[in-house]
Amino acid sequence: MLLLAGCPSSNSSSELDSLALLFLANNSTNSSTITYPCKQTQQNPVSGFSWRSEGRCKTPSFSSNGDGTITDTANNLLWTFCNVNATGHNGTTSTCTTPSIGTDVFNQTNANTHCNSLNWAGRSDWILPDQLRLNTLKNPDRGSSPYVFQPPFTANWGTSPTYMSSTITTGSNPTGVINFSLSSNTSFEYLSGTATAYVRCVAEL
User: Fold this and answer.
1) Domain residues of the chain, as ranges?
2) How confident is the model at residue 36 (pLDDT cuts 50, 70, 90)?
3) SS3 content of the chain, % helix, strand, coil (to 5)
4) What mean pLDDT comes out for the span 21-27?
């Protein structure tokens, strides 16, 4: 029997057992009532793998909305169907223009700006995804680059499809990106502060 601090000694054994079970249920990390958001919560994490389990991102469940957006109902996220560049969403509601490595890649500051200023599919609350969220688009079982879920996404992810994230680490190469040309389940990479990459934006549901 588990005795709880603050419980009167006059309580019966059955009452204490019931209280103990309630305490464990409400404080167990495995309780179905506890949920973890799919996002980075640690500010400026040290480069490496130790911080990435915090996000608790689930296996995504994608569906196309037919308006140039993709919903992930498992993680409560909404993605732009195509990449984003200086002029906005790089495509229509049903087709994407293949991004150019010369004109459609941006450093982290500009990538943030492009997502924050995006007005697409009736929404203006787009943000640059962190590495944890961006990695949910990775499908290592696809068989060839880009290793993303196709469908609902198209194959138009650009040459050497590395995408910018909002993650900034404390390492010498602070800019967090995800490399979708690699088949590994997690392709977290860290580049210099001036590095550029393609951009895809996300919104919360």
Assistant:
1) 52-204
2) low
3) 15, 20, 60
4) 35
